[in-house]
Amino acid sequence: MAEKMGGEEPVSRQRGRGKLTVRERVSFLVDPGSFHEIGKIAGVATYDEDEKLDSFMASNSVVGRATLDGRPTMVLGDDFTVRGGAADASIRGKTVIALKQAVEYRMPLVQLIDGTGGGGSIKMFLKDPRTYIPETPSWELIVDGMGEIPMVSLALGPCAGLGAGRVGASHYSVMVKELSQVFVAGPPVAIAIGEDVSKEELGGWEIQAKNGTVDDVVATEADAFKAAKRFLSYLPSSVHELPPVTEPTDDPDRRDESLISIVPEDGKTPYKPQKIIEASVDKGSFFEIGRNWGRGIVTGLARIDGHPVGIMAGNPFFLDGAWTADVCDKVMRHMDLCSTFHLPVVHFVDCAGFAVGVRHETAGVTRKGVRAMAAVYQATVPVCAVVIRKAYGLAGSAMMNPTKAKWRYCWPSGNWGSLPMAGGIEAAFRKELSETDDKEALLASLYKKFEAMEDPFRTAEAFFAEEIIDPRDTRPLLVDFVHHARRRLEPGKTVFGPRP
After folding, report:
1. What sign for the dihedral angle of Cα 121, 127, 129, 132?
2. Contact, 323 vs 354, CB < 8 A?
3. CB atoms within 10 A of CB 94
4. How many Cβ atoms from other residues are within 10 Å of residue 458's Cβ?
5. Closest CA to 442 of 451, 429, 424
6. Are strands 408-410 and 415-417 parallel, antiparallel or unpaired?
7. CA pair distance 213, 205, nearest whole angstrom
8. Are 436 and 442 in contact, with CB atoms under 8 Å apart?
9. How is the chain split into domains, by residue range?
């Protein structure tokens, strides 16, 4: 009876929308035959006059233990066929046991979210004619759990209220195009405040993936399951372990010839940082996270000689790699993920500083910028910076925590300082330029003089750049870094101090 879920008609509607049922999702996600369900017959039963079972409706959550690629994992799935996945049709204890078992027995938690918020339908007041002061007692378990185990949320339908909150309260979240939406409250509530919108217009992927509410977007539910498993493959099962090192699949001494010419010599033309990442890490191992938001920086996970690492790389295609408010949020989120789960970080630096202008100040770039810097300085894992090109100002200084032993390499294309020379020369020599009879000649002379000072080898002569390397040596040097970094890693819960 429990396996009938909401009944024939609701199940048919679910499939008619192009969606799998919760039990089909679990079967596709986990290793075959590994799912052990908890509380399968928890729900609402009725009994006849002889006290025999007359009818039964299962609660709308499916909970249990399974393995994903051989790793013990907790799974919590919403059943949309029972009251649209509303929390008023669930049993709170099932969510609680999923969170507690995952944390106490040190297993990742994967949530298959397809439902509405904690309040359920207004019609529920007819059964219990009073309102209540809202409480979410499971939230403490969620917050504490994020400091203990990897938590993944797959948005597989409309996710409102508490459902939307669960999507956001995770280390990695995925939406399925045209199938899932995430919003605080759905279109009927939006209409009540004067916004006549569809579910997609209110909380579709083009909104939530571009503002950072979710990390990734995929085309199908099957792709979502694959993404969840791949993300987890880089992380330990809990903070009480180190990330799993796999058998190396790539030559540790590989020198990619493309790296010698990938950065244009004019210092202005952009290049794709993903190409540098892919040439430096184990082939096929780079897993980009958050590609649709904070696009001035590329973040993700990869392996170097089989060792999982976190990746950050400035992206000059977007404001020359300047850190906007959303880039700062993205940096902070990624550094916290790496610190929490003991992933060394490789930072390919190309940063023109914090983004300048009214639009960026309005977005709060100053406050978010110093918070991102704090996340870098508070990082508890080793960070190797590879300075590819620009490193300017406060944001440029946040490539690592310089008070710790620096592990840094610079390419000959490096260009750094407290501010760019261009524009600064005119400002510094305004008086001289206004008094000269040949402004162009003086300006050319000044540029020649100061551009010579930008030579990265002059920085290295003063030991302000520890090593200037042949770009083709980047991978072998990073292999050396990850083996040294492994000795620094310590399992356990990470605690951060306050941030500005």
Report:
1. negative
2. yes
3. 19
4. 12
5. 429
6. unpaired
7. 9
8. yes
9. 2-233, 257-411+469-488
Residue 471 tokens, joined: 């770009």
d(CA 131, CA 122): 10
Say yes or no: do domains 2-233 and 257-411+469-488 share a fold. Answer: yes
Angle separating helix axes 439-453 and 421-428, nearest 10 degrees: 130
H or E element in which residue 257 lies: none
pLDDT score, position 137: 77
Residues counted in the chain:
500
**Are the beta carbons of 1 and 56 closer than 8 angstroms?**
yes
- How many H helices and E strands in the chain? 20, 18
Q: Are 491 and 342 in contact (CB under 8 A)?
A: yes
What amino acid is encoded at 252 in this protein? Answer: P
The CATH number of domain 2-233, selected from 3.90.226.10, 3.40.630.30, 3.20.20.450, 3.30.160.40: 3.90.226.10
Give residue for tokens 């890490």: 281
Which tokens belong to 107?
A: 């297993």
Take residue 375 and report the two structure tokens written for it.
Answer: 């996340």
Q: Which CATH class is domain 257-411+469-488?
A: alpha beta
- Residue among 351, 346, 369 at smallest CA distance from 296: 351
Percent of the chain with pLDDT over 70: 95
CA dihedral 323, 326, 331, 337 (to 10 degrees): 180
What digits encode the pLDDT tens for the residues 60-113? 899 999 999 999 999 999 999 997 756 555 578 899 999 999 999 999 999 999
CA 368, 373, 378 angle in degrees (round to 5)?
125
Q: Report the amino acid identity of residue 193.
A: I
Cβ contacts of residue 14 below 8 Å, gap of 6+?
20, 21, 80, 81
